[in-house]
Automatic annotation (TrEMBL):
UniProt source species: Streptomyces resistomycificus
Pfam families: AP_endonuc_2
Protein name: Xylose isomerase
GO molecular function: isomerase activity; zinc ion binding
Keyword presence, 4Fe-4S: no
KW 4Fe-4S (keyword) present: no
Origin organism lineage: Bacteria, Bacillati, Actinomycetota, Actinomycetes, Kitasatosporales
Keyword list, A-Z: Isomerase
Domain Xylose isomerase-like TIM barrel: 60-237
Length: 389
């Protein structure tokens, strides 16, 4: 979906396909048929943006076979879909029964991460619509925090510098300008937008910036305006933003609240949980840990890294952090010039929701994704952006 910003530029809205992960190119093609096109039809749109997630095997197949890349581009066009952004965070196995910590491997100290992201950039350059010259890729925020010593930090910095050089060369070769954004996430080396400033200014290249995920922003209790203003002052570009909402528990000391939270403690994904105290942020790596004994203080609200559907907040006594998303979006695109032109709805946890909240079959999932995109569209038009055909 495309929108005209009051400054005349085009803002793109997509949804991320990691919600129905596929490891192979055939699986990606099936996604387009079984999921993405039905969402487009529900929205009554001739064209729908998708933030494509390509696992390592699918990316390798596309980058080594020009015919396969052309075939994917043709299939996107045939189904009324377009790609201006890729999710390069998960490397593979995102559809596994247990993802948890494996999603952070390989990290930016490992050569595989640079090779994979370079492949994604080359693929994206070939998938961009004819009238679009800028593409974006989100990636993990350097590494999970443990075992990331000075040597690995230096290797990560070198890899990202090489990536920026490769993106420069790709732009010169193809005329397509691509940017990569580190996606701050609780528990990682770059947990917050503040944490992103030092490593990115050390790299000092505008092709490498930040992907602001509004669920992660909220989970870490960051104020959107303060966070985004700090990035602007530091000269760190917001490459893209993922529109998502976290799980919020206002009164975690109450038994009924803890019972409601326990329903979201599931075995597939990591749900880092945080609370803001006078001494600073406190947290656990997963929701189940937070619910054990006195692992976290209970005097202040808790937030968990669980991407809940934008249009459907959980039932009381829980809520979502949709207000944080709205505040962030106002700052991102509500000003005289957008801080980013690529927005991506990223609720990948539909099938990890408590059983009674999960969609039953493809049709209900398509209904839910279409409802999320409708909400995002309405937020954008309320900010003065005009939806384009």
């Amino acid at each position: 979906m495309r929108f005209r910003h009051p400054d005349g530029s085009t803002v793109h809205l997509a949804y991320c396909t990691n919600v129905h992960p596929a490891e192979t190119l055939d699986g990606v093609l099936a996604q387009l048929r079984d999921h993405c096109e039905p969402v487009r039809r529900r929205l009554g749109r001739d064209r729908l943006g998708i933030g494509l997630w390509l696992a390592k095997d699918a990316a390798h197949a596309l980058v080594t076979d020009p015919f396969a890349l052309r075939a994917l581009r043709t299939e996107l066009d045939r189904r009324g879909l377009e790609v201006v952004t890729l999710n390069g965070f998960p490397y593979d196995g995102f559809g596994a029964e247990e993802v948890k910590y494996r999603v952070y491997r390989p990290d930016w100290a490992d050569p595989e991460r640079l090779d994979h992201t370079t492949a994604l950039a080359r693929v994206l350059a070939g998938l961009l619509p004819d009238d679009v010259t800028e593409g974006t890729i989100s990636t993990l925020p350097l590494a999970w925090r443990t075992a990331h010593d000075d040597d690995r930090a230096a290797r990560a910095r070198t890899a990202l510098t090489k990536l920026a050089e490769r993106l420069d060369a790709l732009a010169e070769l193809t005329g397509r300008s691509l940017h990569v954004g580190l996606e701050p996430e609780p528990g990682c080396v770059v947990e917050t937008t503040t944490d992103a400033i030092a490593p990115l200014t050390a790299i000092g290249h505008d092709r490498i910036g930040v992907c602001v995920d509004t669920c992660h922003l909220a989970t870490s209790f960051e104020d959107p305006h303060t966070a985004l203003d700090a990035l602007t002052r530091a000269g760190v570009p917001v490459v893209k933003s993922q529109l998502s909402a976290a799980l919020h528990a206002e009164h975690p000391h109450l038994p009924e609240v803890r019972e409601a939270l326990a329903a979201f403690d599931e075995p597939r994904f990591l749900h880092q949980t945080r609370t803001a105290t006078a001494a600073g942020l406190r947290g656990t790596d997963d929701l189940g840990e937070a619910l054990k004994g006195d692992a976290l203080p209970e005097a202040a609200p808790w937030r968990a890294h669980f991407h809940v559907p934008l249009h459907a907040a959980p039932a009381a006594p829980l809520t979502s952090t949709l207000p944080v998303l709205k505040d962030a979006l106002t700052h991102l695109v509500g000003g005289p010039r957008p801080l980013t032109r690529h927005l991506e709805v990223e609720t990948y946890t539909w099938q990890a929701l408590p059983p009674e909240l999960r969609p039953r079959g493809r049709a209900q999932l398509a209904d839910g994704i279409a409802a999320e995109l409708t909400l995002a569209r309405d937020l954008l038009t309320d900010l003065g952006l005009k939806e384009l055909p």
